[in-house]
Amino acid sequence: MSDRLQKLLNEYKETKRCLEMGIEWLPSNDFxxxxxEVVNMIIEDLEKIDA
Length: 51
Fold this sequence. Notes:
About 85% of the residues lie in helices and about 0% in strands.
């Protein structure tokens, strides 16, 4: 995996962790849950590029 792709993947994983922490504090935040789903899809796609 290229350095740029790895850096992008790491940034999305960090974003995922932040959203997950926020959802713990505001469990009824549907907007954050929807964004988390999008971030998870992006992470999966980036990981597939490496495969």
